[in-house]
Structures are given as C-alpha cells and as structure tokens.
Amino acid sequence: MANEMDFEKPVLELRTKIADLKEYNAKSEVDLSKEIEKLEQRLEKLEAEIYGNMTAWDKFQVARHPERPTTLDYIPYLFEDFMELHGDRYFGDDAAIVGGIAKYKGIPVTVIGHQRGKDTKDNLHRNFGMPHPEGFRKALRLMKQANKFRRPIICLIDTKGAYPGRAAEERGQSEAIARNLYEMSDMKVPIISIVIGEGGSGGALALGAGNQIFMLENAVFSVITPEGAAAILWKDASLAKKAAESMRIAADDLYELEIIDGIIPEVRGGAHHDLKKQAELIDQTLSKSLHALMAFTEDQLVEQRYNKFKKIGVYEES
Prior knowledge:
With 318 residues, the protein is of the alpha/beta class.
C-alpha cells in the first residue's frame, strides 16, 4: 500500500519524526518543545498543501485504504438499536451486504450497506465487499420491508462492484441489480445513498437509486475501475492513473455534473484518521437530508426520484 500512497509519504515521515521527538523529549532532560512546535506548524502547512491538491488517482487510493471505515464501523456512531437481518429468503445470506433496522435520532429507519473485510480472513468471508445476487436480493427484501412499514432507507455504498464470477451469473446477477433499480424507483419512502468509499459500477447502483446521493470528499463513483478502463482503452492496466483523471470519478467532478447532491467533507488525510469525527460530519448531512425528504408526500418522493435521474446526462434532440 505504501507504493500506492506515495503522495502521502512526506506527511507520514514528518508525523513519525514529531512522534519520535515527543517520546525523546518525555524521557530526556533536554527541552525540545520549541523544535516540536516548529515541526507541527510545518506539518500543518504540508498537510494543507498535499491534501488540498489531491488528484483523482490520489483520492482513489484513499478510498481503497485498508483502514478506511466501513458500514459496520459507522453504524454504532450514526444509529441506535441496530438489529442486523440476514438472508434473501431464496438462496442464502451474503456477508458482502449488511442491513437491518435501527433508529436515527428516534426515527425508525432501515440501514443497508456494502461491507468489506478488515483482514484476509474477513475479506474472504465478505468476498472483498463484492456482492453476489443474494446480497442484492437481501437488500431489496429489507427495502420492501421498509416501504411496507414506512421507514426511511439509508444506504452506505462501498464496493469495487458486483461479483463477476460464474456462480453469480448463474444465479442472475444482472437481473438482481436491475430488479433493485426498478423497485427502488417506486419506493414510497425517502431513500438516501452515501458513497463512503468506492462506488463501483452496478454493484454501487443497486443501492444508489436514492432521492439524494452524497459522497465523502475522497470517495469515488464510477462505471468501471481505472485499472479496468485502462485495460480496455489502452490495453495496459498500468495506465490506471491516466484513466482515473479522464473518467471524472471524484466527488467534485460528479457534483459539477449534477450526478450527486452534495459532498461530505472528510477529516484531513482521510476518514481513516478519525472515525468519530468523520461520523459526525456524515451525521450533519444525513440529518438535514432526511428531515427535508420526510416533508415530502409519497407521490412527491417518487416524482422527485424520477426527475432526479431523468435529468442526468447530456443529450441532443434531433
């Protein structure tokens, strides 16, 4: 990962130096407080320079950071009384998608999100956050339940994409994604989707047909990974950095294109640096969005969602 995060190396090196000086200062009789203060000021300027000028490729690497918070990391900070529900009632339970019922500031809600693993064993269990059809069908089952009991739906998106293996295709991967989009379009309750990491292709869209879509500042949202795009366009996956810049996958690009409704700021350096603070930043946007949407009637929610997606894209009438 170190080679992939080269842009961050000067910051990490300076942080390590400051930490070493603080440890030495605490154990020795020499007062290094002034030197430490100067280095901390230098660090603040360096962080502002580096993190304030990140490229799309830099953000893509931060979005894939192995320590980046996942759906299950955020849930305890955002919701109360979360009870996870399992299974699609057809085939089985897919650990790449988690979901259940909870309360958000006293309001009953349904929470659904992609879930990556924290280590090799967990990643194998969760299929690296790439759902099979039963994962999407589980999500849809929970959405239909939410629609029946008039609970708002909150989706946290974080996947490289739907699993492309043979077993997934045999069980109807494309149909499951398409079914989610079809059913979500007519839900009578507010749907809020937040891209917390990587929003890849149909795997992300299956949880992304919301009334409002938000992205964390360093999250990405794309039809294909930069590696995949480079392999198709130039027959060379090593040109992924070039592809990332041309694909406009970063939050600021997608906000400019009016594909998303807002950008949630991240703590300096990325969400993995301070989970609690990052949850607070998400909470501010989520609270405002949910209360605004709850003022809509059922018909208005459906119409607003329809119009939102209808206006995406540029076309010319002949």
